[in-house]
Specification:
mainly alpha, two-stranded antiparallel sheet, 2 strands, disordered C terminus
Length: 209
């Protein structure tokens, strides 16, 4: 009867609840036996396929983690907040591992698509998201920013500083991803693991995110 009350009913609750209970307990229409058998066979086959897929995904994940951990950059990537073996491998694969591929952090951010574009015309100036980008890498960095929120106090504070309202959460997350890409570049350039206290120091002029 509580559900009936939540639905807005006020009268004859006991009688209506009894009618519903009786209807649900009464014999229901059944499909022909041939259809029932076909559906059962189909369900059994789907369960077998899903089970096999789950086993193969687990095996592939284990092989991926093993291969990633052998990479010389793995320790650095794993040290950054929010980057585990799977997401770290995605980020590494999309960025590439050539040490001189990116001249500076800005170039890496531009390639990731996390850096915005500023358009100016006359007295107007707008900052918009970069649409021409490596979508697979941007998605990985966007997910990375989300994961970092629960593991890094600095990332959490940076996100909160750039998220003044409910409509800006996507922008704040993109800005955090942009910041993390810059931190990753610094770690790789100096061949050093992530340090929370150093990563979130605020310079006098911070790169526009």
């Amino acid at each position: 009867m509580s559900l009936l009350r939540k639905g807005g009913r006020r009268r004859n609750l006991q009688r209506r609840a009894s009618e519903i209970r009786s209807a649900l307990r009464a014999p229901q229409l059944a499909a022909p036996p041939l259809v029932t058998e076909a559906q059962a066979a189909n369900t059994s086959a789907l369960v077998a396929v899903i089970t096999t897929l789950g086993e193969q995904i687990t095996k592939l994940e284990a092989e991926l983690v093993e291969a990633f951990d052998r990479h010389p950059d793995a320790e650095i990537l794993r040290s950054l907040p929010g980057l585990g073996a799977i997401l770290g491998a995605r980020v590494l694969a999309e960025f590439g591992d050539a040490p001189d591929r990116y001249d500076d952090a800005r170039a890496r951010r531009d390639y990731a698509g996390t850096a915005p574009i500023t358009r100016a015309s006359g007295t107007s100036r707008v900052v918009i998201a970069r649409l021409a980008r490596n979508k697979r890498l941007f998605d990985a960095c966007y997910q990375w920013a989300f994961c970092a929120l629960t593991t890094s106090p600095g990332a959490r504070a940076y996100y909160d500083d750039h998220d003044p309202g409910p409509r800006t959460s996507k922008v704040a997350r993109r800005k955090l991803a942009n910041k993390l890409v810059g931190i990753l570049h610094g770690c790789l350039a100096h061949r050093t693991v992530y340090d929370e206290s150093i990563a979130w120091q605020r310079p006098a002029v911070e790169f526009a995110a």
